[in-house]
Amino acid sequence: MDVDMTAHVMMERAAFPAGAAYGPAVPAEPVAADSAPAARVGLAAGLLLALRFVQARFLSVWGLLVAAALCPPQAFADFAVFSAFVSFVSIAALLRLEAIFFQNSSHERLGRAFRLALATGAGFLGLAALGVVAAVAAGKIAPAVGALFLVSLAGRAILRLVSAEAMAEGDFQAIGNGNVLQALVQPATMLLLIWALGATSLSLFAADAIGHAVTAGYLLWRRRSALIALAAPAFWSLHELVSSAHRWRAAPRLLLPSALLSYGFTVVPLMALPYGSNPMLAAHVALAMRLLEVPTQMFAAVSVPLVLNSLRTQSGVGRQGWVRILTLGLLAGAAVLFAAIAVAAMTADVLLDATQWAGIGEIVAIMALFYGGIALVTPLHEITSLSRHPRRQVATNAVALLAAVLAMLWFDTLSLPLLCVIGLVSLARMLALIQFAWTGLGAEPVPVRVA
């Protein structure tokens, strides 16, 4: 689906275990002591979802490669920026209120949180539409681009909302099927549009919007009975919305900044594209990012349910020791995976010497450093979310993003040395979270209810 959306929702379920969330210091409701059976069920369902996610990513690779072969480099670079920007904006669409869905198994609480998130999303999309209309009227963007932006944003917002609801209710199959559906529909639509409209940026934008809209429509239909029960007109009231917004006001304050900063760091290489005087290098960076997103998301989708199960079965003084073993295993896995990708990219580069993508193997190898750090950060976020100091994630992401921006200003142009420096910043961010997970978890987390 959207960039790391499935893995991100899975991480939120771990970060907000039943009956607990992190917020102002108010005592939490006790969590059931025997969580092992639920953890085993969650592991099996989570692994099934991870496998479906991996299957979907493999299916989508062919479309990515065909687009790279048919489209000019500039069109591909434009699409990478468009997709990243829409994904970034969509993170704020629900103000991260979907994370409240995972606090406990209360259906009444889920309904209140769902209605608040739905109202928030509708208001956000309304404001976004006004902003797009103003931008079109001012001549800043083309009307077609503005319309496709809104469709893609709405599709992503709906996917975020309904995927979180389905995950909270345990319907992993719906999410997995949605992943596969989008992996089939979006590339096929892209090929049809390229054939009909030509290999332009607009064809890629439209395929993205249609892919997300179709997947959102499928999930809405699949979950229609549950969604109607949650959003029935009889349950809506202004008093409830105001009360819910006040009660869960800490959730967007803690989660939204961290999510935006983390995603902002993920797309740092795209932020450097306007600094490039070499459009071919910019296109190579954009394609390398799209290619490396696939193993990065696969690593997250497979590792998160395993980490979730492991942490739920550990308690007491042994928890910190187990986290250290888990962290070492994740580090080794990420290192082997992305080192292999770098070697394979350099080896395969000779096959592209006579094409417009000659030299991309070196770009992929350099950026494997950047994405290797990002891949490990996803399960590390899950681990550190159980600590006594959850705000540490916000600070770490903010410092990393600031360092990357300063590096771009220092180099003042897109270049291989800049990509190397950004990769080192990614590794430093990863090491900071490893250090925090290694020493800062403690014997038990201190769960508190979001006020």
UniProtKB/TrEMBL annotation:
The chain crosses the membrane at residues 49-70, 76-95, 116-138, 144-162, 183-205, 254-274, 294-311, 323-345, 357-380. The keyword Transmembrane helix applies. Keywords: Membrane, Transmembrane, Transmembrane helix. This is Polysaccharide biosynthesis protein C-terminal domain-containing protein.
